[in-house]
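Lay summary. Proteins are chains of building blocks that fold into shapes, and those shapes determine what they do. In this project we predict the shape from the chain. Here is one chain we studied, written as its sequence of building blocks.
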Amino acid sequence: MASLQDIRRRIKSVKNIQQITNAMNMVATSRLRRAKEAALNNKPYAEKTREVITEIAANAKGVKHPLLEVREEGKKLLLVLAADKGLAGAYSSNVMKETLTHIEDKANTEIVAVGRKSNEYFKNRGYNVVESFTGVSERPKYENAKEIADYVISKFKEGEVKEVVMIYSRFVSAITCIPEPVRLLPFTSDEKEEAEQTLNREYIYEPSAEEVLAALLPQYLVTVIYAAMLQAAASELSSRMNAMSNATDNAGELIAKLDLHYNKVRQAGITNEINEIVGGANALA
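And here is the predicted shape, written in a compact code that computers can read:
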């Protein structure tokens, strides 16, 4: 049986952990408000940018651009957005599970890892991580998205990559986030056909459709990646807030159980001492 000193030491240890998890919960809650506002404020701009690019690509007949090129052969490039830090529940692991469903051939798949967790996960399992970006998961900036987009565009233009898919966690609410894939490149004909069915607008291009698309398509990729990074940041912080809240509550329950156990052991010790005193007194009598 554990001694009273051992139980007191364990209670103190759990209380220290509870203080840490409670502090992390408050920090995550505070940061979540800002991350949620940033994601919601950016969403209309990202959706409108996608709509405009889809309309222009649908109406620019016969336009050729490297980012519109559909290839039958080549590698698949996966852009994976996960966390830099742990203690966020199943946030990163859910993103990894979703990513694995999009890997058909390990040898012909390249990974661009955003976040230390995704970088470590795929490197430790022998996947080809061609580039990694760390330290940006909780507080992404537009410059980070542009750097990632520039790298993805350069990889696609080299001709070895036939498809670029981004996997991130879409923020739904403070308790729900959903891993979601988005095909970045090439800008597929499916989106063009959908736009043709719903829109009948005519465009006049100045100086030309090729130059307009050459300017807008990279900007579109930066916008989509930045929006996904903001969604992922809000998802990460909400997951961490929930995980730390649950850890704090569990620590409180454990402390209550340890206090009860401590009192039982203490009472048993007092009872034994009384029995020894009474037994000694009876022996002397």
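What the prediction tells us: The two ends are 33 Å apart (CA to CA).
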